[in-house]
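W.,

You were right to be curious about this one. When I first looked at the sequence I had no strong expectations either way, so I just let the prediction run and decided to look at it fresh. Below is the sequence, 135 residues in total, followed by the output.
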Amino acid sequence: MHHLSYCFLASYGTQRTLILNTKNYNGNPRGLETFFLPLSDTCTTFNKSQMVSWPGKNDSLVVAFPGWDNPNPRPSYFPKSIPKDISERLMRLHGDPFAWWMGQFFKYAMRMNKDFQKYTDDLAREMGYESPIVG
């Protein structure tokens, strides 16, 4: 998830759509979709012939973000940055604007699929949990 935050920031910062491909990630054939809903139902594939390496150019349609969290060159919008258009209000309303900004993304990105939701619900019931759990 940490690396996903970098991918999201790079996508947002370059005004590109984030297409996340985690198939076979850590040996899992379905990737993150084993647990979570896809980020999009429509933007799921890209033309590999159009792909260029990070950082690409302004007119690059598909930019492959590196698989590590220290890309070269390092963009100015990397942690802990927030969008300029909401920064003033956000800094006034929240003690840690970056945490709120990333929280919005992860709230969306970590929507459990029905199988994983059922698994966690059944496990919580089996363990006797009756209230929210943090941990």
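Here's what jumped out at me. The first strand starts at residue 51 and ends at 53. And, maybe more interesting for your project: The first helix runs from residue 2 to 13.

Coffee later to discuss?

I.
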